[in-house]
Amino acid sequence: MALLIVFFFIVLYFIYENKYYKIIKVKISSKKIIENTKFVQISDYHLNSFINLKNLKRDLELINPDFFVLTGDIINRNSSGKDLKKLEEFLSIFDKEIYFITGNHEYENNSYAQVNEVLEKFNIKSFEDNFYNVNESINIYGCNYKKRNCNLKLMNNYYNIFLIHDPLTYIYGNFPSYDLILSGHIHGGQIRIPFLGAIVDHDFNFFPEFSKGLYKKNDSLLYISSGLGSRRIIRTFNRVEIILFELSSI
């Protein structure tokens, strides 16, 4: 009986970690920024059924960002059929431009053609050897999962943001020095220990150097999101999150 009670509370804790997202604020100043800009990053949603989309929509409306970026794995590799309805419900909460790159779950999904139809229905801006000019200050570049030839020429007078699902691809790859790189994939290690951080990453490296949060990498800033969901509900000391970036001039 005691074991059942312990198991019950452990499950409740995992649900809490997956349901009650944190809003992380990241403030960045740069001489390249002409006008103050704020945007929200969401990564690794995985059609998280614990997230209350009405509450999420309310919070996003209160934030009122200039645009959104989705850095992959908004679905699962086996998502199809009725899951596409859930995807539509998720995408319908956004009221500004959405910039999106694929993660491994989109890449490995056999129904991705149908998923892509949903993305097109919501006018999602995706990347294929292109970039987007957001305003007088900002350009956004993106590299879909498993693609390595994404080194478009940068316009160095702009603040250049780069979206890539797996941060290790950027860290150990050969990419230009973007001003800000946004990624996910690692889920913050999923299981974390206070003061020690992530226990293991996707490649089964113990106590990885990179797991979640803001890092300085060469001349760039790299943010790794712990995600808004995961395929499995096991999370410890690592609640799901959305990230609000506030960019301002120096």
Would you write up a description of this structure?
With 250 residues, the protein is α/β, with parallel strands linked by helices. The protein has six helices and 14 strands. The strands form three sheets. A six-stranded mixed beta sheet has the order 1-14-2-3-4-5, with no helix packed on it. A six-stranded mixed beta sheet has the order 6-7-8-9-13-12. Strands 10-11 form a two-stranded antiparallel ribbon. Helix 3 (83-91) packs parallel to helix 5. It is globular and about 65 Å long. This is MPP superfamily phosphohydrolase. Residues 38-188 form the Calcineurin-like phosphoesterase domain. It comes from Peptoniphilus olsenii.
Question: What is the secondary structure topology, with strand pairs?
Answer:
Elements: H1 2-19, E1 22-30, E2 37-42, H2 53-63, E3 67-70, H3 83-91, E4 98-100, H4 104-107, H5 112-121, E5 125-126, E6 131-133, E7 138-143, E8 159-164, H6 167-171, E9 180-183, E10 192-193, E11 197-198, E12 213-217, E13 220-224, E14 241-249
Parallel strand pairs: 1-14, 2-3, 3-4, 4-5, 7-8, 8-9, 9-13
Antiparallel strand pairs: 2-14, 6-7, 10-11, 12-13
Keywords: Hydrolase, Metal-binding
Domain Calcineurin-like phosphoesterase: 38-188
Protein name: MPP superfamily phosphohydrolase
Compute the average pLDDT: 93
State which percent range the strand residues make up: 25-35%
Number of helices: 6
Q: What's the SSE pattern?
A: HEEHEHEHHEEEEHEEEEEE
Approximate helicity band: 10-25%
What separation lies between the terminal Cα atoms?
Answer: 60 Å
Global geometry: globular
The radius of gyration is: 18 Å
Unreliable stretches (pLDDT < 50, length at least 5) are: none
* DSSP, total strands: 14
Largest sheet: 6 strands, mixed
Structural class: alpha/beta
Protein name: MPP superfamily phosphohydrolase
Keywords: Hydrolase, Metal-binding
Domain Calcineurin-like phosphoesterase: 38-188
InterPro entries: Calcineurin-like_PHP (IPR004843), Metallo-depent_PP-like (IPR029052), Metallophosphoesterase_sf (IPR051158)
